[in-house]
C-alpha cells in the first residue's frame, strides 16, 4: 500500500498561483503513475494531471493545459502541482493518487491509493 499526504491548498484570487505537494510513503517502488484529481461540490471527481514515475512523461486535462504543471522529486518522494493563472472554476478539493498499472490515465477509477485532499478556493 502507498500512503499519500497532500498539502499546499488555500485561498487565492483569480489569476494567482498555488503549488500543491503530495508526499508518498510505503510501497513506492510499485507506483507507475501519480495523478492529481479534483472534485467540486456536486460534481464528479475529474483528472487534472498525471506523471509517469519512471520516465516523467506528463499528461493534462484540456482545462488546465498551459496553466498547471505536474512534476516530481524522486529524492523527496514528492509530486507537485504548480497551478498558475487560477480561475474560479478551479475551485475544488484536490487529491493526489497512485497508480500501479502500466499505462497513463486521468480516470479516477484507474488509481488505487488516494490522499485525503487539500482545498483550493479561487475567488473572482
Q: Can you describe this structure in just a few lines?
A:
By secondary structure, the protein is an all-beta fold. The chain has strands spanning 2-7, 10-13, 18-26, 33-39, 46-52, 58-60, 68-73, 78-83, 92-99, 113-114, 118-123. The mean pLDDT is 95.
Q: What features would you describe in this structure?
A:
It is a single chain. The protein is mainly β and 124 residues long. 0% of the residues lie in helices and 52% in strands. It has no helices and eleven strands. It has strands spanning 2-7, 10-13, 18-26, 33-39, 46-52, 58-60, 68-73, 78-83, 92-99, 113-114, 118-123. Strands 2, 4, 5, 6, 9, 10 and 11 form a seven-stranded mixed beta sheet that branches. A four-stranded antiparallel beta sheet has the order 1-3-8-7, with no helix packed on it. Strand 4 and strand 5 form a beta hairpin. The protein is globular, with a radius of gyration of 13 Å. The mean pLDDT is 95.
Question: Secondary-structure map with pairings?
Answer:
Blueprint lengths: L1 E6 L2 E4 L4 E9 L6 E7 L6 E7 L5 E3 L7 E6 L4 E6 L8 E8 L13 E2 L3 E6 L1
